[in-house]
Specification:
The chain has 321 residues and is mainly α. The protein has ten helices and four strands; from the N terminus they run αααααββαααααββ. Helices cover 36% and strands 3% of the residues. The structure holds heme C (2 copies).
């Protein structure tokens, strides 16, 4: 039986190799353990976001850097697509690394994802375009453009070491500890006292300080136009560098003032939450939902590009009808 004789040493060798590999492998066998453990979750506490200083100096690294620059200098880099005076990082503070400001760490790992507002599973490119068209009141990028690829590569970099499907550490903006109702006239006084110095007396933004309302601000279809979401962003982060200094009531008050001001429209918004269930403070009518407030809506420069279309079905034959 020479065949068997040959196989036995091969198995033995394989066993020795496997044992050797196991011995060399870092102690943490946890990646597979956590991946298979039911709902054990990802240990966010021991994850450090990748440093922007260690982006590799190769072709992919250059794309990641361009993506980061597009997020931080959106209006200068893409003037044809960003029509407000907001950058992506006006809200996603510290290059998307700030946990209190809708962090982008781990985003790439959790897409494609179901989005209740759209009522569909969407790709990360579409999610980026929802922020382009709504939060930035801009125009959507082609999903296969170089710029979109750069942005997605940057998002992928911010998900380094995070397994696919990991739940977000923070899903969007943190919730407010208490759901209060804002008073817009008190909010106007707070705005004048604590915000106008940077955001301008008319809220239209000055130099690097972005607009809070008006034609250069975020559109009505942005999450930031919801009183509770705006209160959360403001309470945690504003005045800039002094997050946490307003009372919760003051944050709701100033948010309630801001969400009532005029801002760009968001065409197609009535189709949001197609199966119902819109949050209480959405400022426009959707399925089964009456608007919470009714700000004056300003026209969009390129209405057709202010909407993220549902993906078309592939034609029955390539190039076919
Ligand atoms: C006016 C504020 C604002 C601006 C400007 C903005 N965003 Fe957002 N973005 C948000 C908020 C708030 C969320 C979380 C949405 C929610 O509440 O569910 C979000 C969510 C996202 C997500 C999904 C994150 C996740 O893990 O689910 C991506 C990706 C994103 N933004 C990318 C961008 C990009 C790229 C730009 C610039 C083109 C941008 N955003 C500009 C406020 C903004
Ligand atoms: C010291 C200047 C400063 C003050 C004071 C300040 N902000 Fe801001 N705010 C900024 C800057 C700058 C950004 C954009 C973030 C960045 O570029 O780092 C911003 C971003 C924002 C945003 C998200 C982007 C946008 O334009 O919608 C909101 C909302 C906001 N501020 C509200 C407020 C409110 C409300 C107050 C008063 C309670 C306030 N800010 C006070 C400088 C300031």
């Amino acid at each position: 039986m020479p065949r068997l004789v040959a196989i036995v040493p091969a198995i033995a060798l394989a066993l020795v190799l496997a044992a050797g590999l196991a011995a060399c492998a870092p102690r943490a066998e946890s990646p597979s353990a956590t991946a298979t453990a039911p709902k054990a979750g990802f240990d966010w506490a021991s994850w450090t976001p990748p440093s922007l200083d260690s982006i590799p100096d190769d072709s992919l690294g250059r794309s990641i850097r361009r993506g980061q620059a597009l997020l931080a200098h959106t209006t200068d880099s893409l003037p044809g697509y960003a029509h407000s005076n907001l950058q992506c990082t006006s809200c996603h503070l510290n290059n998307g690394l700030e946990d209190k400001a809708a962090p982008l760490t781990g985003t790439f790992a959790r897409f494609p994802k179901y989005m209740a507002r759209t009522g569909a599973v969407i790709t990360v490119e579409d999610r980026v375009n929802y922020c382009f068209t709504r939060s930035l009141a801009g125009s959507r990028l082609a999903n296969n453009s170089k710029e979109m690829t750069d942005i997605v590569n940057y998002l992928a970099y911010l998900s380094k070491g995070i397994p696919v499907g990991t739940k977000a550490k923070v899903d969007g903006l943190l919730g407010m500890p208490n759901k209060l109702t804002g008073d817009p006239s008190r909010g106007e006084a707070i705005f004048k006292e604590k915000c106008a110095v940077c955001h301008g007396p008319d809220g239209q933004g000055v130099a690097v300080n972005p607009a809070l309302w008006g034609p250069k601000s975020f559109s009505v279809g942005a999450s930031m136009t919801r009183e509770e979401r705006a209160a959360s962003f403001i309470w945690h982060n504003m005045p800039l560098g002094q997050g946490g200094t307003l009372t919760e009531q003051q944050a709701f008050d100033v948010a309630s003032f801001i969400v009532r001001q005029p801002r760009p429209d968001s065409p197609g918004k009535e189709k949001d939450w197609p199966t119902g269930g819109a949050p209480y403070d959405v400022p426009y009518a959707t399925q089964g939902h009456a608007p919470y407030v009714t700000p004056t809506l300003l026209p969009r420069r390129y209405p057709a590009y202010s909407v993220v279309p549902q993906p078309p079905r592939a034609p029955a034959t390539p190039g076919g009808p």
